[in-house]
Structures are given as structure tokens and as C-alpha cells.
Amino acid sequence: MPRETANNPHALIDPQQAEALARNAEIMAGLGGSGETIAEIRERAEAARIVWNEGGPAMAVNEARTIPGPFREVPVQLYKPSDADNLPVFVYFHGGGFKLGSPVTNDLQLRQLAESWGGAVVSADYVHVPEQTFPDPVTEAVAVVEWLAAHGKDWGLDPDRMAIGGASAGASVAMGAAITLRDAGKGDLLKAAASLYGVLDYNLDSDSMNELGGGDFMLTKAYTQAVYDDYLPNLADREDPRAFAAKADPAGLPPVFVAAAQLDPIRDDSLTFATMLGAAGHPCELTVYPGVYHAFFGFSAVIDEARRMIADLGVFLNTQLGGR
Q1: The domain that contains 104 carries what CATH number?
Q2: What are 141-159's pLDDT values in tens digits?
Q3: Which of 160, 150, 168 is nearest to 105 (CA)?
């Protein structure tokens, strides 16, 4: 894997990334800190996201809705940049360590994506740890895709042009759903997939983790292991490709957009995944965005590389699904 972060990774930090982290620390301090109980942590994380999601493009449709699921009515947010019918649709799953987040966690970024691409976005929630663990989030994500395939036309969507994806933990859930659908003979429901700095491999000894996982670059090795193990309390599940897509056979999966952050301790998970796809001759686009950390997508208000990734994803979706 690339070793450009081996010697002096601090010198590579994008000034806009540093600005975003400083601003986020101010926001969290104003909220009274990150919180102690899981309820407080979730509430304050979402409150901070409200600040980061201010401004941006208006949508013709920006509505909270629900989709029937195996455990509950699944909360989703529907974004449509126009009132046109038969729009292609990207089904998105937020990050948050499998514990945090909501359909509006990346509200600004998904509006920016819908505007630049011209398609619709359905941002879907999934059940969280500790209340529920693997494979329940994947099961819920599959239900969302199957419902949209059957009923998406009622929302002005084209179910024959559907993609799936997510950020961080959400990428694990999204790829797990794509693998589940493929294994069930329903792989043709999805025409594309996207992983944004995804949780894709159970590898705590990668070059990127060893170089960046000491505490200065957001994620630490100990924190990452705790996140994975809380999601996968059953040891056998840690080898399941529905949890870690780098372990999957890619045959029958759709083309995949893989984005990684250069200064992310789990960067090499994305590189391993893309290498596996490439070795199998599977359609894949990989970009490593320089100078940025895990979760940089959420700071598109101030980080140019986040906006570049959104534009790149829009081009990929247009190529695979078409646009307006």
C-alpha cells in the first residue's frame, strides 16, 4: 500500500481539514461536549450536523418519509432536485460507527450530490448498536432496496436505475446489502455501488492503521477495534463478507466507486477492496483524496476535496445510471 504517510503525515494535512476540525471542536464545546450516555452522544452529534448542513442547494423535494422494514418503519429522507418522474436513485447509508447518525446526517452533502448529478437520493437509516447488531442493519438495508424496487415509481423514481452506497459504517451496510441481494439472486436490482472511506476489512495491522492510528488522525486502533467488535459480537461474523466486503467474491456485484481519505487510519481497507476488485477484473473506480481525514465528506461546507468527491460520485452515478 502507498507509504506517503509513513514519515511525516502531519505535513500532509489540508489546511481546510484542519480548519474543519477546529470549528467542529468549537461547535461541540458549545453543545457541552460530546456527551456521556449513548442518547447524549447521539443528540449532540446530530446537533453539530445541523450547523454543518446549513446552506446549500434547494431541492424540489426534500421530505422525511418511511419505508416498511423487518424491525420498524425505516426513516428515510427523499431528495429530488426536480419534480421530474423516473429519476435514477442513489440509496445512501450514513456513517457513525454503527451507533450514531440519521437520514439527515449528511443533508448538505446529499443535496449537493443530487444537484450536481441530477438524480434522486434516498438517505436511509438503519438500526444501530448497541440496540441491534450485525446482520440486522444489513437486513434492514436490503428491505429498503427491495421496497424501492417495488414501489419507487410511486415516489417518482426509476427502480431500474438504482445504486447503493454509504460512508464509513454505512458503506459496510450498503455493500453488505448488495452482497445479500446478489446471493439471493436479486443482484440486478442494483446498477452501481459506492463506498466512501468504508469499513471494508477487519484489519487492525494495515500500513495506514500503523502509520495513522495513534490518536492524531481521528480514529485510533483501539477505538476502531471496539467499533468493529461491538457491531460483530459473534467472532464468526468477523469473517462474513456482508460485514467486510473486502472478503467478498465480487462476481455478480455492480460496478463500484471507492473513495478513500489519505490520512484515514482505515484508508488501506479501501485500497485492499479496490485491489481485490481490480484483480478480479471487476469494474471499479478508486480515488484517494489527499490531505483529508476519515469523515471529511461531512465537511463539504469548507473542504474542497469533499466537494470534489461529491462531484466525482455524481459523474460515476451519471455514467452508471444516467441523470435527469
Answers
A1: 3.40.50.1820
A2: 999 999 999 999 999 999 9
A3: 168
